[in-house]
């Protein structure tokens, strides 16, 4: 079992990333060989501030380590340190089909109505993501629900490449989506949109760097409806905001939705929200204080990332060489 997954350094790590991906990565470190990377090449598909990017990469690396990623167990690196990601992505652009990429819901969501004005990279981003995964022969890719379609695309690209060039090179990976409510944490302002780093409203998400008062305030102001909580999970259907907050509470405390509702049935949000804020603070406070210690040691962060890059590069090199050979460009 080999695990590969990444996160974009496009903003601060938020509760959705943490519950949907990072805390699951942390648990997998003892079971598999794990590679985790800062997807800084992916960050170029949206507007980036060149003066900030290196800082954002270090900040995200520190956030991952503070959350429990252990560089002694897992390979932690920045994507751009390894040219093989971009090289393999280019090879795979010959395999991926326009029609496949056109169907990606994230492309439709992020490009919105302005497809003509979106970057080409935003459109072909899933092909780079396929390269990230296939380069290391990953068997499992732990991601949030929003990335499931991209992992399925990666499988299609792997299978078509193997067939077209008559090789058994790429391993079609399995998406590895968490069970329960953590797989898709929704915005605090809109139960129909996922919590995201790039949502313009900071009130839509809980960031790892938010202090206790900010967490409490964001939960207090989170959108809800006037009804009390029901005793039956089925009665949360049609109440996306209520469902999301109950789901977050369960994911944070480890309780099922049934257990959460058993405790809060018939209570209004006036009593549920403070309990939710308290649970979130208990989860995030220790991570935040570790982050405060780690983030200032840039030399140590750079050392960890350089060490990770050297190990990842060695793992990926044979696959890239085989891909060049398969397409007739062997060296
Ligand atoms: P961006 O808006 O820049 O795309 P993001 O919040 O979607 O940011 P990514 O870096 O794209 O973050 O994703 C990192 C990981 O977090 C992925 O595995 C993704 O599936 C997961 N993830 C992102 N948002 C959520 C969410 N709301 N709920 C659960 N998992 C999520
Ligand atoms: Mg995303």
UniProtKB/TrEMBL annotation:
Record keywords: Aminoacyl-tRNA synthetase, ATP-binding, Cytoplasm, Ligase, Nucleotide-binding, Protein biosynthesis
Taxonomic superkingdom: Bacteria
Entry's localization field: Cytoplasm
Binding sites annotated in the UniProt record for ATP: 8-10, 16-17, 144-146, 185
Reaction(s) the record says it catalyses: tRNA(Trp) + L-tryptophan + ATP = L-tryptophyl-tRNA(Trp) + AMP + diphosphate + H(+)
Pfam family, one: tRNA-synt_1b
Motif window: 'HIGH' region: 9-17
Protein biosynthesis is among the record's keywords: yes
EC number from the UniProt entry: 6.1.1.2
Major enzyme class: ligase
NCBIfam families, A to Z: trpS (TIGR00233)
Record text on subunit structure and interactions: Homodimer.
Record's protein name: Tryptophan--tRNA ligase
Organism: Sphingomonas alba
